[in-house]
Predict the 3D structure of the following.
Amino acid sequence: MAWWRWAATALCLVVVVAAQALWPAPPVPSPIAFQSINDDRFSQLRRQAMQFVDSRPRQGFQFVERRRDAEFQVHCRGIPVLWLEGRPQHLLLQVSLDAKQRAPAVVRLRALLQWQLEPLDYLEQVLAGVPEPVLLDRVLQILAGDVPDGARCGVP
C-alpha cells in the first residue's frame, strides 16, 4: 500500500512541474541596487539605452520612458526586458530572467550600465527592500523552455 502512495505522490509532483512548464508565468526581473546618481548621470544612462535601441532598427526593441529622468524600460516586442529606476535612496536596475534567451543584446547593455554604477552591498540591498529572485523562480524559468522565435529581439 505504501508503494501506491509513493507512486501517486511522484505522479502529482510530475503533473505540477509539467503544468508550470506549459503555462509559464511572466518573466520575473532580477534586480540589482546601486548608489543614487544625479539627474545628469541618469540622463547619460538614458541616452545610452536610447542609442542601444536606435542602433537596432527593425529588431523589435523599444525604448519606453515611464518618468522623465526617473525611470525607463527597454522592451522586446512589447515585453519589458530591462528597467532602470531612480528611487530616493538608490538606483534599481532590473533585467528579466529570460533576457538571455529573449534579447541577448540586452545582457550586454546591462553590463555596460552596471559598469558605470556603484552597487550597494548585499546588506544595503536587503535593507532597501530589493527583492532577490528565489531559486524556484530560476528553476521554473529553466523548465519553461526556450522563448519562441517570434518573441525574440536582436537575433538573426
The chain has a mean pLDDT of 79. Strands lie at 29-35, 61-67, 71-76, 79-86, 90-96. The domain at 29-132+147-151 is CATH 3.30.310 (TATA-Binding Protein). The radius of gyration is 19 Å.
